[in-house]
Write a structure and sequence with these properties.
This protein folds into 3 domains: 60 residues, DNA polymerase, domain 1 (Orthogonal Bundle), CATH 1.10.150.810; 163 residues, Reverse transcriptase/Diguanylate cyclase domain (Alpha-Beta Plaits); 197 residues, Dna Ligase, domain 1 (2-Layer Sandwich). Helix 2 crosses helix 7. The chain is built from 21 helices and 13 strands. The N terminus and C terminus are likely disordered. With 535 residues, the chain is of the alpha+beta class. A hairpin with a 4-residue loop joins strand 10 and strand 11. Helix content is 42%, strand content 16%. The protein has a 5-stranded mixed beta sheet. It has a 5-stranded antiparallel beta sheet with strand order 11-10-12-9-13, covered by helices on one side.
Length: 535
């Protein structure tokens, strides 16, 4: 079985950076020509080296998986098949086809907003982002193979005439807020996923008005979209997973409704490429491909094997996909674990710029926290350097904070620590983010169990992006501190509660990987006892 290996020929590596023609607007392109340009223009860059490292890691995972597969016995497969059949029966017995779920996707949203403000861009290939990374591209650019999450310098090789417009999130938030007002007419508790994406359950709306999904072709979103030069796509299906796939079905100018019956669902699913399904990215796609699984029908056929090779969570997800199952209830309640905001940019090494951005991120995050009456005890700084290495550093305070100056006091010291660590070399960054977690209620006495309804309703007037909800777990409490470190001072309101408790939690300095980690350093100077006394 070919796994791509770690060959320097680049053939295996190409699968990671190659054109993803599952993206709307990229059908029928000359893949070989585009992939050769991508390889030639990226080779030797930091981006290339980072992607090569990731590719080698994936290849190693595949090699381990294939070795594990070789040792699976017929008895193990038979037992796994029995388990799969039982779970399939249980899932089929509760299949719900009664809801009408809509996935709304504002196609090429950032590019559409920029074109609205600069009509000259309408017939030109353009993208939004920077030479470091693009966030989206219009359909003219996609004809050249230019796509989101592609470095701008590679995109310019594919399309020398490409116009790259810097991001303007204030502008995108304003437009998103207007569109969300319309969403609320159909579902007051709609679920916004980002500035340009949302889920609506319109079952009650249709029942009350005796209007069925076909009538949505003339719904107000389309009229509004034409006025703003936006394309708003609708995927209509019995559950959220299918609705999201359907919204991509007839891009760039269509809508798609999947009938609410099992036969239609199974026919729709069987030939669907696995990469089309939310939750299956390029790593999982390659691992499944190594097993000969490229479409959703293959998932069902190989489910017993997948149950033995993948985690329980993963193969349960694969089984849901193979049956066309997904959530039929838009989740409106739940415990929020964290809130974060981050920015990607071209190389930034000037200290003044870094601290200025850090302060701005803290101010943005503080506004979102205060809107939701949230305070958190753990502040995390996320950094990605020019070598695409992601590091996180965090501090857990003895009392919760939400004000921007308090957040900045912590984040500034975390940033200073990393600047000192690389000195005398400059800290060369391409991404910075701030996260607050370990939320407590407003009275600072109990963990927060906050309904998300308020957040969703507020989202109609105030966008949450780029600030995002995260489900990462907070730092564990009551871990031993490292030798020689002093106990940080307790929050004045918690002095009595703090006495007699174990030392302040300490975890290793760095978290790795792409997502937010958890770590701790010494209490920032501005929050130490002497500073508090002086203030």
């Amino acid at each position: 079985m070919e796994t791509g290996g770690t060959s320097s020929s680049g053939e295996g590596f190409l699968s990671r950076m190659a054109l993803n023609d599952n993206k709307a607007g990229m059908e029928g392109l000359d893949r070989d020509k585009i992939n050769k340009i991508i390889m030639k223009s990226s080779k030797g860059s930091r981006f290339y080296e980072n992607e090569m490292k990731k590719e080698q890691q994936v290849n190693q995972r595949i090699e381990r998986m294939m070795l594990q597969k070789a040792h699976i016995t017929e008895q193990q497969l038979s037992k796994a098949q029995t388990q799969v059949e039982k779970m399939t029966f249980d899932l089929e017995s509760v299949r719900d086809l009664s809801r009408v779920i809509v996935h709304v996707d504002m196609d090429a949203f950032y590019a559409a907003v920029e074109t609205r403000d600069c009509p000259d861009l309408k017939d030109k290939p353009m993208a939004v982002g920077s030479m470091s990374m693009l966030t989206t591209s219009n359909y003219h650019a996609r004809k050249f193979g230019v796509r989101a999450a592609m470095p701008g310098f590679i995109a310019k090789k594919l399309c020398p005439n490409l116009v790259i417009v810097p991001t303007d999130f204030d502008k995108y938030r304003a437009v998103s807020t207007e569109v969300r007002e319309i969403f609320a007419d159909y579902d007051p508790h709609f679920l916004p996923m980002s500035l340009d994406e949302a889920y609506l359950d319109i079952s009650e709306h249709l029942e009350q008005r005796r209007v069925w999904p076909e009538a949505l072709r003339s719904h107000p979103c389309n009229t509004f979209a034409m006025g703003l030069l936006l394309i708003i796509l609708l995927g209509i299906a019995p559950n959220m997973m299918l609705a999201k796939v359907c919204s991509d079905k007839n891009k760039p100018n269509g809508q798609y409704r999947l009938p609410s019956n099992r036969q239609a669902v199974m026919v729709f699913i069987q030939d669907l490429p696995v990469r089309k399904v939310s939750g299956i990215g390029k790593v999982t796609e390659k691992m499944l491909g190594a097993l000969g699984i490229t479409s959703c029908i293959h998932l069902g056929q190989e489910m017993a094997l997948l149950a033995l090779l993948f985690s329980e969570t993963s193969w349960h997800h694969f089984l849901d996909i193979s049956l066309g199952l997904g959530s039929t209830h838009i989740e409106r309640d739940g415990e929020r674990k964290s809130m974060s905001t981050e920015r990607t940019f071209g190389e930034m090494s000037a200290l003044e710029e870094q601290f200025s951005l850090c302060r701005q991120l803290c101010q943005d995050l503080a506004q979102e926290l205060q809107k939701e009456a949230l305070k958190g005890k753990t502040v995390t700084l996320k950094l990605k350097n020019v070598n695409f290495e992601v590091k996180t550093r965090a501090w857990t305070l003895p009392c919760a904070v939400a004000a921007s100056d308090k957040l900045f006091a912590v984040a500034k010291d975390l940033l200073t620590t990393e600047i000192d660590n690389v000195s005398p070399q400059p800290l060369r960054l391409r991404l910075m983010g701030i996260r607050v977690s370990s939320f407590v209620s407003a009275d600072d006495k109990k963990p927060l169990q906050k309904s998300i309804v308020g957040f969703l309703q507020q989202g109609r007037a105030d966008s949450s992006s780029p600030t995002q909800i995260s489900s990462h777990k907070p730092v564990k409490e009551h871990q031993p501190k490292p030798p020689g470190q002093t106990q940080p001072f307790p929050c004045p309101s918690l002095v009595q509660q703090s006495q007699g408790q174990e030392d302040h939690p300490w975890v290793p300095s760095w978290g790795g990987g792409e997502d937010w980690g958890a770590a701790a350093v010494l209490l920032p100077e501005s929050l130490r006892p002497e500073a508090a006394a002086a203030s």
